[in-house]
Inverse folding.
């Protein structure tokens, strides 16, 4: 299936809420016009794909609004969710010939698209932008390492708690600090990401709620005792 998305009138870079979070944050106002000229804004509805696994990697993207799940189909047909992308995240860092994952919208999503060759030329001309991309690559590597640890020798409870605290930290770095952690993904998505069953994820969340460590609220989870949660997750 081909990616399904529609164009959207470009929001000026200076007015973009995701700019302070994205690779473009290092660009001076005079440079933004050149950056905008290379960009295309895309709007996706829930379930639509920004790109799909094995498709040509001919573009890179910045998430402006919404959240996406990054999924990989294994040879036996099982689905593994490698991560979730939030506003400010940059996709396509590896400049792969073909995408190794699919990026699927969890709800309405707006993303900024750049042709791969155009963006590579821009990086060559602007070393400070290249440094910003390298910093994002370092963050992506750290998240991948965290995911490896998460899937390692952790109990189901530790996995769920570590996921919630990790998501909380990601929101905080983007200026969205709150005791309530928004969960744009469903419990099945969480389960596929953590290597658990949906029943186990639901049971762990219910247990934490009954222990008054979290409060399950519409659209998310409120963290009531972060210090104790961190101790339980061995963080």
């Amino acid at each position: 299936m081909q990616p399904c998305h529609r164009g959207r009138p470009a929001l000026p870079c200076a007015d973009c809420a995701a700019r302070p979070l994205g690779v473009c944050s290092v660009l001076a106002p005079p440079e933004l016009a050149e950056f905008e000229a290379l960009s295309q804004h895309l709007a996706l509805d829930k379930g639509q794909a920004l790109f799909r696994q094995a498709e040509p990697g001919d573009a890179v993207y910045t998430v402006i609004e919404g959240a996406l799940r990054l999924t990989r189909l294994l040879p036996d047909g099982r689905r593994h969710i490698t991560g979730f992308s939030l506003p400010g995240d940059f996709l396509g860092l590896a400049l792969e010939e073909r995408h190794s994952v699919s990026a699927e919208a969890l709800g309405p999503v707006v993303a900024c698209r750049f042709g791969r060759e155009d963006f590579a030329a821009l990086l060559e001309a602007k070393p400070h932008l290249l440094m910003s991309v390298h910093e994002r690559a370092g963050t992506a590597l750290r998240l991948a390492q965290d995911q490896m640890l998460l899937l390692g020798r952790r109990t189901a409870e530790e996995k769920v708690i570590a996921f919630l605290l990790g998501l909380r930290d990601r929101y905080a770095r983007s200026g969205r600090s709150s005791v309530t952690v928004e969960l744009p993904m469903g419990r099945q998505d969480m389960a596929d990401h953590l290597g658990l069953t949906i029943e186990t994820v639901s049971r762990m969340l219910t247990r934490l709620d009954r222990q008054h460590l979290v409060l399950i609220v519409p659209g998310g989870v409120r963290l009531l005792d972060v210090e104790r949660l961190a101790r339980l997750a061995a963080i």
Q: What stands out?
A: DSSP finds seven helices and twelve strands in the chain.
